[in-house]
Amino acid sequence: KSNKFTPTGTIKVEQTDLGGSEGFKNARLRIGRFIFWHNGNTDMNGYFVDNRTYRGTVRIRSSWRNSAETIRKHWNEVIGIDVSDHLYSLTKNNNGTTYTFLQSDDHLYPKAVTHNSVVKYNSFMASQGVTQISSANIWVSSKDKASSTPMLQRLTALPTIANFSTFGQGTVWSQIVSNLFNTVVQILPNHLKPDQILSFGGQKLRPSYYSTKRMEQLVYHESGHFSHAIKAGVWNYSKLYGAELKNQIDYLNSALRR
């Protein structure tokens, strides 16, 4: 009897509001072991099947990089190293089983909800003829509280934002990333800088707010800014973002002087 098998399974994301789970939608996977890896994909229900056969153990990893977004959370991901995570391993004996992203996983769950939310956002916006999320660098934090959409990679907006805010690029950069990786990423090249920063830390301070629905709402809100930015262009969007940032910095400075 052959020991070969074709890896297949289902990947789900816990839904804290509705109960149960939903599929990890149209997600890119890395399937293989050792130095031998190739890409796979889930469907809208989170189901995947590989196109190769194996003996022994096969590892399933989530690749947080696709045509819509690259999701980065840990410092190594922010600086461009290994933007993927191990999910589970399959053998012939447990082939066809399900992996579920759970809210209790502080590293993986925010990434999974962010990915699914982008898929839902893009699906709806496509039906309305509105600009979708594409080629976005998304930083995710479960500790910080400030979220924003600075468009530093897609629009290379940092110099223009700094010009409109009347502050130097260093000050603007520090305000945008707050304490999130600030000391690690001072010299990041443009292609690694964030378009969106999604911070779920404020929600975690109020447990009733740390839910799938609330997290999705944050992604949709910031994604609306992304669509606006692409439509408006770097000049108009940077003027708006710079003015808002200047107002924020001026307010904080005046509060400190009181």
Description of the molecule:
Helix 2 packs across helix 6 and helix 3 (about 160-165) crosses helix 7 (about 235-255). Strands 1, 2, 5 and 9 form a 4-stranded mixed sheet that branches. A 4-stranded antiparallel sheet has the order 4-3-6-8, with no helix packed on it. A 3-stranded parallel sheet has the order 7-10-11. The radius of gyration is 20 Å and the shape is elongated. By secondary structure, it is α/β, with parallel strands linked by helices. The longest helix is centred in the C-terminal third of the chain and has 24 residues, at about 235-255. The relative contact order is 0.14. Helix content is about 35%, strand content about 20%. The chain has 7 helices and 11 strands.
Please outline what is shown here.
With 258 residues, the chain is α/β, with parallel strands linked by helices.
Give the overall pLDDT as a whole number: 86
Helix/strand/pairing class, anyone? alpha/beta
Shape verdict: elongated
Proportion of strand residues? 15-25%
Distance between the termini: 79 Å
Instruction: Figure out the total of helices.
Output: 7
Instruction: Show unreliable segments.
Output: none
Radius of gyration: 20 Å
| Proportion of helical residues | 25-40%
Q: Characterize the largest beta sheet: strand count, sense, and whether it forms a barrel.
A: 4 strands, mixed
**Total strand count, please?**
11
Topology as a string of helices (H) and strands (E): EEEEEEEHEEHEHHEHHH
Defining key terms:
single chain; 258 residues; four-stranded antiparallel sheet
